[in-house]
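Researcher: Going back to the complex we discussed earlier. I've cleaned up the inputs and rechecked each line, so this should be the final set. Can you rerun the prediction on the complete assembly and write out the structure?
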Amino acid sequence: MSAASPFERREESVRRLLEERSVPLPPDLHTRAVRRGERLLRRRRTARTLLWLALLAAVLAFSLWACSARPWVERPSDTTPPVTGL
Amino acid sequence: MRAGSRGRPPGQAARRAREFEAFVAGAAPRLLHTATLFTAEPPEANPGARRLAVHALAHTYAAWERLSGEDPYAYARGCLALRYARTTWYPRRLRKAPAGGALALLEPRERLIVVLRMFEGVAEEQCAALLGLPRERVAGLCAHACAVLLHPPRERADPAGAVRP
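Model: Rerun complete. Updated structure for the full complex:
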């Protein structure tokens, strides 16, 4: 195995450059993350509930309208003249 | 009753809280370090990086049950990188890089890629897939960022500077 290539040495020095400073950890990170995560979940649940309710309302409205209007029944014609002279 | 445990057995919520706490204890220091490198803020004054880290951790928390088998750290890192990539669209807030050393010389996208590739050790292909860039573009941006980091900007005028070790 030969020594590290110039490319690898370059990568290694960039890596060292990025790792040299340590970052202090704030103590409230976990609390803030959980609070925001709960809020996210709550919002998603609300949005899902509202969408289902809207879908349900649309289905209900359509069936009520279909029952009363009966669009599949053929309408009595009032434009054609009555058939006579047969 | 907590809102988060509604509709689920209470044992599951407690287990999730415990698991997530352990995950944060292990992953938060590195995640915050990555975020601080993204924003090129000084390590002691990094409000932007903290916001990024909280965002990534909160989304990981919300997705915890869907993550079965997947590495939560990789998920959080993806959230972090994508969030940073989006925030750099807006010129305010995170865009201004206040004297964070050599990293502050780079464009936000170059910094994002060099930190993902070199500090986090993400493969080129995964980087490209995450950011929606061609693989060659990721390699080029990373090489340029490495060259800028290793050589001061005065030497960058030398066209061979990017190739020299």
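Model: Worth noting: Chain B touches chain A at residues 2-4, 6, 17, 20-21, 24-25, 28-29, 32-33, 36-37, 43-44, 46, 49-50, 53-55, 57-62, 101-103, 114-115, 118-119, 146, 149-150, 165 (CB under 8 Å).
Researcher: Good, that matches what I expected from the previous run.
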